[in-house]
Amino acid sequence: MKLLIIEDDPKIIAFVQKGLQEEGFIIDTASDGEEGLYLAEQHAYDLLIIDWMLPKLDGLKMCEKLREKKNHTPILMLTAKTSVEERITGLGCGADDYLVKPFVFAELVARIRSLLRRSSYNFNECLSLDTLEVNVLKRVVTRSKKPISLTSKEFDILVYLLLNQNNIITHTQLQEKIWGINEATSSNIINVFIHHLRHKIDSEGEKPLIKTIRGSGYKIESC
């Protein structure tokens, strides 16, 4: 699981990053809201940990901007604010949970795992982009109402891309999500699967949806 921590206190970042890495999480960090928003929009994270008071762009506005852009990554808000009204404000801006500083690290981990469990079950039965439609439960794919036959791996890759549409998905993320962290999969194999998937999804006459981001990975988007 890959998490992004946006926090301007270097001591808190160091403490939380070290502890979460020991728990097995992959951690990226940002020290201000603008950098955090950029990273959150460019990469697919499983969860965001955002401090309320940030330089350049505060945590509330960052949450609002992410939700406006249909980014549904779970958000855990960190703050020293303790009033009920302030908690309601934070949750109303798009945060999924709220943790008051100072906090016990064990509670932080518990809240993170709870949000991750919750998000794993909170998905739409149907996903769509442009003329592409996917029924996740029935495992049915159509483009312009025409059925598309995909292998199991191709279907899983497509769903993962759609759940993170407009975000760059790296080879490492695909390997961990589709093949599993313990299964060795080369970049060449992933490239082959993407090639076959693109050939089926982006057929002649349709707008190309699956983009290769050189040196980074892949992105599915309609523009």
Write the layout of secondary structure elements.
Blueprint: E1 2-6, H1 10-22, E2 26-30, H2 33-42, E3 47-51, H3 59-68, E4 75-79, H4 84-92, E5 97-100, H5 105-121, E6 126-129, E7 132-135, E8 140-143, E9 146-148, H6 152-163, H7 171-179, H8 187-201, E10 210-213, E11 217-220
Parallel strand pairs: 1-2, 1-3, 3-4, 4-5
Antiparallel strand pairs: 6-7, 7-8, 8-9, 10-11
Helix pairs in contact: 2-3, 6-7, 6-8
- The CATH architecture classification of the largest domain is 3-Layer(aba) Sandwich
Report the principal-axis shape. Answer: elongated
| Beta-strand proportion | 15-25%
Our measurement of the CA-to-CA distance between the termini, rounded to an integer number of angstroms, reads 28 Å
What structural class do the secondary elements suggest?
alpha/beta
What CATH calls the topology of the largest domain is: Rossmann fold
Q: By CATH's scheme, which homologous superfamily of the largest domain applies?
A: Response regulator
Helix content: 40-55%
- Kindly provide the radius of gyration, computed on alpha-carbon positions and rounded to a whole number of angstroms: 19 Å
Secondary structure tally: strands: 11
CATH class of the largest domain: Alpha Beta
Strand order of the largest sheet: 2-1-3-4-5
Mean pLDDT: 85
- How many separate structural domains? 2
What letter string, H or E per element, gives the SSE order? EHEHEHEHEHEEEEHHHEE
Report low-confidence residues grouped into runs of 5 or more: none
Largest sheet: 5 strands, parallel
**Count of helical segments?**
8
